[in-house]
Amino acid sequence: MIPKSILRIIEDAGHLVIEEKPYEKEGILMNRPFKYTRLSKDDAACLLIDHQSGLISLVQDFSPGEFKNNVLALAAGVKYFKLPTILTTSFENGPNGPLVPELRELFADAPYIARPGQINAWDNEEFVDAVQKTGRKQLIIAGVVTEVCVAFPALSAVEAGYDVFVVTDASGTFNEVTRHAAWARMAAAGVQIMSWFGVACELHRDWRNDIEGLGALFSEYIPNYRNLITSYTVRK
């Protein structure tokens, strides 16, 4: 770390650029100390952004069936862990279309913000107010399209002091090149990049906590997972 006394030189030195050198920890070269921030079901909220009928037609980095399965799997997991959830759409009376009905039905009592035009959900005061009212500091974000409707509010939330976790397989865009560029941009800003399955497992923490309940959820959205549950049930 650079001593404060050295950093004060910046005030008198005009355009002085100081770069911290990487340090080595257990043989691994690192740019800064790492702290593993885990998702907590007591401090996390979920933001489902612009999963709209028109926008979803733009998603080409997943097949339609696979993408729908992933989005609904994330939604089911969020519901299972009873996380505060916020739904939002952008310009839904235009070509973007309405929110997909499955999400509206699953979260009938959740805050629903139909943004009149703001591309970045974080530019909408009602949306930000809803986020703040959850009292949570960890935000799980998924949406369409990845580099815009997901990345913009994710970066804004990081700037506002939140820990942000973007769900890669419940967010979609035009192609894999665009997707990976968006992931890289967000990761560089401190966003954690995860899958819906990773989110569920990190929230769950311990397989001994209701394996039947979570296992049933996994079995519904991961066909091959049914083999694990079937084997487990037979052994019991």
Span of the ends, CA to CA:
55 Å
| H/E element sequence | HHEEEHHEHEHEHEHEHHH
State which percent range the strand residues make up.
15-25%
Write down the CATH class of the largest domain.
Answer: Alpha Beta
CATH superfamily of the largest domain: Isochorismatase-like
What composes the largest sheet? 6 strands, parallel
Explain what this protein looks like in three dimensions.
- The strands form two sheets. Strands 5-4-3-6-7-8 form a six-stranded parallel beta sheet, sandwiched between helices.
- Helix 7 runs parallel beside helix 8.
- A hairpin with a 2-residue loop joins strand 1 and strand 2.
- About 7% of the residues have low confidence.
- With 236 residues, it is α/β, with parallel strands linked by helices.
- The protein contains eleven helices and eight strands.
- It folds into two domains: 160 residues, Isochorismatase-like (Rossmann fold); 30 residues, no CATH class.
- The radius of gyration is 20 Å and the shape is globular.
Task: Give me the secondary-structure topology.
Elements: H1 4-7, H2 9-12, E1 23-25, E2 28-30, E3 44-49, H3 53-56, H4 64-80, E4 85-90, H5 101-106, E5 112-115, H6 125-134, E6 138-143, H7 146-159, E7 163-167, H8 176-188, E8 192-194, H9 196-204, H10 211-221, H11 225-235
Parallel strand pairs: 3-4, 3-6, 4-5, 6-7, 7-8
Antiparallel strand pairs: 1-2
Helix pairs in contact: 4-9, 4-10, 7-8, 10-11
